[in-house]
Amino acid sequence: IDEKMSFPGYIAIIPVLGASLIIASNGNDLVVSKLLSVRPVVFFGLISYPLYLWHWPIYSFYRSIFAGSPDYHELILLLLSSFFLAILTYYLIEKPLRNARNKYITAILLALSVFGTGLIGAFIFHINGVKDREINKSAGEYASVTDVYNYYKYGELLRGGICHSVQLTAAISNGCIKNGKHNIFII
What we know:
This is Acyltransferase. The protein is mainly alpha-helical. The chain has helices spanning 13-25, 30-37, 39-66, 72-98, 103-126, 137-143, 148-151, 168-173; strands at residues 157-160, 164-167. The radius of gyration is 26 Å and the shape is extended.
């Protein structure tokens, strides 16, 4: 997997097929059921959702702070941090809430945490975002483009029709560009 691949891309078929095969086995296959019953695999299953929740914010914050992708050592540290926070989340939040005796208090605490998160989001929206955050200059630059043909310096070539690069004369002759009409450029 690298930055040139589309996300999730064809590689996503591997976990989808794997999950489908496990579901299709319906626990009847002794090898699959024994493998999924091993303590480390069960533990990984228990922390998998908190791990899923933590891994991307940690990776994103790293990229925001250090303006780049982590090297292998940093990636291992980020992965270990994700596992650590996932384990803490499981034992300090998920398990106590699941095993709580008073479901009414649990529901109130969860509602308050959702409401508090919403308030924080509304406050950040109200102050127009976090002030110390560096604005993505390229997004602002693209948003201010009014003449895409000159901005991208197409010259004789442009993208006409359905994603086919053609000569300007061919684009006009096949009706991609209408004289006297407003033409729209869609990326």
